[in-house]
């Protein structure tokens, strides 16, 4: 906890609002600190109490007259800011403001919170809260919260934007035998937020895994920056709620959280090496896995079982989660064959059959963990007449400790008869499950994280040549001067050209005759597209005709377009029709951009064409991360478009290098020009050699940048 | 248990292999029957024991000299068939063969098992097993198994193809407070299989929900027939394992590659109203939901909570599972506003805030359950200072009983401090969870099942006119006579025509000149496709050219095709090139068929074209179920193709009626002609009026039908 020592490990703590009355929160906090075994000096502060717990009680913090590092404030909201100023004047370094009644209650509360923040800034104090449960550190130890209980010693840090969830998890952790290094209730995040604590926990030697429950991220850029670095060091698992439309509504009525779009969070997590938990169960399953077991090097899983059915269920889960069933080496198979009964299955899953005692488990688990083709092991045990669940638990712990580099988990399928064994396993750091599927999912999370942790650090960003930022800006400024927000086709083409993105030639024809002349110049066949600042989806209103092979066809198409467009959108101003040479070879992809309020420009890539929204075969990244060839290549490889680009069903491969270049340039474009609010290059056709942006839509707005 | 009374509720039970030695399985079985409180007569049979438990022991079953309904056999495999015959001769109605060493050990065991089955058939006995744990019925009561323990009385029947899983679940059920009506260990399913027991449990008044763990289905047709009827009566939830690698056959058609036996099981489950559990947790979560709560009428969920964060997580889960957050009526909102504190959220989720005691829960839960816009309720509770988990549990049970038609579930987020409340809820039939997501998933399963249960019974199958089965057979027989298994284009067209499926005109050209002549006759533009019995994917080898607008183009294309095909597949016999008129309007869909070994012909429908395998936007049904307009329409509506067919982005709607007709005819075709092993109509173009099968691939084999 390098940066926030005064919060997690203060030399002195003042409890402002400390109370003798067990009904008061100030009572709970004071006694929580005392009972947690806190080794520093505690100062109760309350003008209405002469002494508490045999200690003198101070009227104000300034009356203490000695240094105080941390003050926990639990008095009514109206008095908090006055007290905070006194803390500042007394040289306090950190505040934990438990008191509610700030931003979460509306405008007046928000004003109060802004004042409180200013006071902190004025005195250089850092603050947790307001409106929080407090924080706990089992290693100092310190329980500066009003929660009922103190977690067992462990290496998991849990950062929660919901106080109730923190209290729930604390209560639940005892029966799970789960140990924690710290619990942090974020409250309103007026000053310190999730990123500060992720950073702090990343530097804490007592923390091995960082769990978060968050409803929003305060600063997208800092989140990505801090997590990207922290996740190289230890796993960060986040349950982000408010991910659905309905959930986001609930979020905004709850803490006034601005829920960023799902896609942006997914992209940000992926790019930062953050694991996203899809459920509360998954969050804690991953916590258990990471807290005690090493990371697997590869996804090859061995299963050792005393029953067939559960092993099949587990095998299904292995495949469903994209892991692999390990294939044992010959020596392992020979060893198993020589030592297990004939009815046993010596291939993976190793079935020791129903009469297996501990010795058989010991032999088989040791054999498979020794095998170079095995990266992790799952041990399944069902209660049968001769099963030895406790002895087997000891075996699993022993072998898990012995074979250090390979994670081992246990699935003890049953209840009472296996409880002692389960407890032993849990206590000794082997994550233990009742049913197989969650264990496999946890293993999958470990593999995913290992992929990030051991990936080479980000290489140097690509330097793009021939970027004419000024030229692109000129086009945009002209459009803004024209009081438009959508670029016309030829304007968008100019922006593309300025950033070195090949776009198809497109020329505006005002009349049928002009269209014919331009077509002749470009060479047949051509496509015609209506040009209007008010028509976003040209195809939908009959504004596009393709594959025009003769002058007569061009003329007829021009007139048809004009006729249809005037019929469907009679009020739209029509600038003319754009004549474009036809490009119909190559793979159709989309490159697009939308801006996320938290994370900035978000790039989409995937299968293009008119069905892009129907198929949704796309993937997202923050533009900020698309500045290396590797990052772009990984993004492309994630999509079904990649299958086409590599050459699908006998087709020659498409020019992925050129595509990568265009994606780099697109990311650069939307990063440079913040006036661009949305962009669609759809389709971009990727040929065997080179690419062509066939239809480019750019929407802009005036911005002060 | 109407049909299998002699198994579940026999008047007499003989235990063959009964023993005094606690190490013997025959000991466990005998004492399990005695200790379960079995009210009928028990006969121990063992030639080596004079008496057991103060009862005379019989040498053979024939020595009993009185009627015996059920015999449980637990002697070494070698003696089983002799003993089974004696049972038959003694007039026994049912056998439970515990003994292992049959089919599961290989060829010799399989032979033994077949003999055993013959003996049963000879005497009209029915048999459970061999190689099983036995069966239990808590209502008779009868524990005819060697499992350690007897389940609590309840209304869940669990049928398991894995004995170990059954024993595990039994052990686990005690700590979950889960009650069962029966446990059935299927063993090798030599005679009685999952379908027999589903049928029997469906008729059992003590069973409300049927759970199965199965690894395969013995008879697909019977499974569908029995489950379709049984599921109208009570929910059937199945965890089917072995879903992973199973169906990886080398199939030459798109449909075959897409199918795999997974799809067949999914389709069969869907059509039979069977719920598929994706994990063991889900299997039992659904069991708990169904066993005690009524079915919701619609998917509108109300949430009542004392904490915001967990409510957002729950709201996310509601949306993710396709359920809806209920929108309360005005009277409900007014009522909540008038009676809850101002800081409470009176919209859904109803947040009673952290200081809510039982009274607030009572008031709010009653209010929302009364609301006509609410179909189900989830009650969330986090431990806070004044929370009353036990009183609130009583409230939830009381209101759940009072508001009869609406399911209520509880999420008690925490551990020890909530345990008493959790226990009360569980005991009184309110499914209770620690985290929210599984409760929502269970609710989703209930909605899904309600959809089946209350759907109108299948209407009368459509009568299709103009089916020339004989004509189609003639074509197929000619191809078989020619020793080919793949129909050429024009042959496939003839089969289509015989079944009234419009196919594009296609004529074989042997030379460039013939191609030109046919093209002129059909009218330009045309498409050319190579005709060869050995080329499955014509596009992949350059065997297809489309959009040929002039005679010159047709001639060039003919030569290019010949050249490429000879280059890529030099050994393939080339019959010529098929000339087809171009049809390029309409929505491209695929209708395909592959045969599943268990479930027969499986129809695929979805987005067609060359990317069908890439996109996998398809859905499956058993052909047998596609004999009504409604069934076909539901299948179409499930896919993204439906969005296109309805008219996507300004396009006019396609002729869905014509498509339905073709799907009905396709299902009929593959049902009638069992020689057809695989079929692809891809693409079928659905026009504004009518449809055209553009490319039809039919694979056949000689069959005795």
What does this structure look like?
The structure is a homodimer of 705-residue chains. Chain A has 705 residues and is α/β, with parallel strands linked by helices. The first copy, chain A, has four domains: 5-289, Rossmann fold; 295-453, Rossmann fold, CATH 3.40.50.261; 458-500 and 585-705, 2-Layer Sandwich (D-amino Acid Aminotransferase, Chain A, domain 1), CATH 3.30.470; 505-582, Dna Ligase, domain 1, CATH 3.30.1490. Helix content of chain A is 40%, strand content 21%. Chain A contains 24 helices and 30 strands. In chain A, strands 9-8-11-10-12-13-14 form a seven-stranded mixed sheet, with helices on both faces. In chain A, strands 15, 16, 17, 18, 19 and 20 form a six-stranded parallel sheet that branches. The first copy, chain A, starts with a helix and ends in a 5-residue tail after the last strand. Residues 251-260 of chain A have low confidence and may be disordered. At the A-B interface, helix 5, helix 8, helix 11, helix 16 and helix 23 of A face helix 5, helix 10, helix 15 and helix 22 of B.
């Amino acid at each position: 906890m390098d940066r926030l020592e005064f919060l997690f490990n203060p030399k002195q703590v003042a409890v402002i609002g400390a109370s003798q009355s067990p009904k008061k929160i100030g009572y709970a906090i004071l006694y929580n600190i005392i009972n947690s075994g806190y080794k520093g000096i505690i100062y109760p502060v309350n003008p209405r109490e002469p002494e508490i717990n045999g200690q003198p009680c101070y009227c104000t913090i300034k009356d203490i007259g000695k240094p105080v590092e941390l003050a926990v404030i639990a008095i009514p909201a109206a008095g908090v800011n006055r007290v905070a100023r006194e803390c500042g004047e007394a040289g306090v370094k950190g505040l934990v403001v438990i008191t509610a009644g700030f931003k979460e209650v509306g405008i007046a509360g928000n004003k109060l919170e802004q004042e409180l923040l200013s006071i902190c800034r004025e005195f250089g104090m850092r603050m947790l809260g307001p409106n929080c449960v407090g924080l706990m550190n089992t290693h100092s130890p310190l329980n500066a919260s009003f929660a009922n209980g103190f977690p067992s010693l462990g290496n998991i840090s849990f950062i929660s934007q919901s106080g109730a969830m923190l209290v729930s998890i604390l209560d639940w952790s005892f029966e799970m035998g789960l140990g924690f290094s710290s619990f942090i209730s974020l409250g309103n995040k007026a000053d310190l937020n999730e990123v500060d604590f992720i950073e702090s926990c990343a530097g804490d030697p007592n923390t091995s895994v960082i769990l978060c429950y968050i409803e929003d991220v305060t600063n997208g850029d800092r989140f990505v920056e801090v997590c990207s670095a922290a996740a190289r060091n230890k796993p960060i698992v986040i349950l982000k709620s408010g991910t659905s439309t309905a959930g986001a509504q609930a979020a905004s009525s709850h803490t006034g959280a601005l829920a960023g779009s799902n896609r942006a969070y997914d992209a940000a997590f992926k790019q930062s090496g953050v694991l996203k938990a899809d459920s509360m169960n998954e969050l804690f399953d991953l916590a258990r896995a990471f807290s005690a077991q090493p990371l697997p090097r590869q996804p090859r899983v061995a299963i050792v079982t005393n029953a067939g059915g559960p092993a099949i269920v587990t095998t299904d889960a292995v495949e469903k989660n994209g892991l692999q069933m390990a294939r044992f080496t010959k020596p392992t198979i020979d060893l198993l064959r020589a030592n297990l009964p004939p009815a046993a299955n010596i291939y993976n899953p190793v079935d020791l059959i129903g009469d297996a005692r501990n010795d058989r488990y010991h032999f088989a688990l040791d054999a498979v963990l020794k095998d170079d083709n095995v990266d992790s092991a799952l041990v399944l045990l069902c209660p049968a007449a001769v099963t030895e669940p406790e002895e087997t638990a000891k075996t699993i712990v022993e072998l898990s400790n012995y074979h250090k580099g390979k994670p081992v988990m246990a699935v003890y399928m049953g209840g009472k008869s296996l409880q002692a064994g389960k407890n032993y396993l849990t206590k000794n750091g082997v994550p233990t499950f009742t049913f197989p599927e969650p264990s496999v999912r946890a293993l999958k999370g470990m593999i995913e994280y290992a992929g990030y942790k051991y990936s080479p650090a980000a290489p140097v960003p690509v330097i793009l040549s021939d970027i004419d930022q000024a030229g692109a800006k000129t086009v945009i400024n002209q459009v803004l001067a024209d009081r438009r927000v959508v670029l016309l086709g030829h304007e968008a083409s100019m922006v593309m050209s300025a950033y070195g993105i090949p776009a198809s030639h497109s020329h505006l024809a005002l009349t049928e005759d002009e269209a014919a002349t331009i077509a002749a110049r470009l060479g047949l066949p051509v496509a015609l597209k209506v040009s209007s600042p008010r028509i976003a989806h040209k195809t939908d209103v009959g504004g596009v005709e393709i594959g025009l092979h003769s002058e007569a066809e061009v003329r007829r198409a021009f007139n048809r377009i004009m006729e249809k467009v005037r019929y469907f959108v009679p009020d739209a101003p029509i600038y003319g029709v754009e004549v474009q040479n036809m490009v119909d070879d190559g793979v159709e992809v989309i490159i697009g951009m939308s801006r996320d309020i938290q994370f900035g420009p978000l790039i989409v890539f995937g299968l293009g064409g008119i069905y892009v929204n129907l198929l949704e075969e796309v993937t997202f990244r923050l533009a900020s991360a698309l500045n290396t060839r590797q990052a772009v290549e990984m993004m492309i490889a994630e999509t079904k478009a990649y299958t086409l680009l590599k050459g699908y069903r006998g087709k020659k491969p498409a020019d992925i290098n050129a595509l990568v270049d265009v994606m780099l340039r697109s990311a650069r474009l939307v990063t440079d020009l913040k006036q661009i609010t949305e962009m669609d290059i759809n389709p971009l056709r990727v040929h065997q050699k080179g690419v062509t942006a066939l239809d480019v839509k750019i929407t802009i707005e005036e911005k002060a940048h």
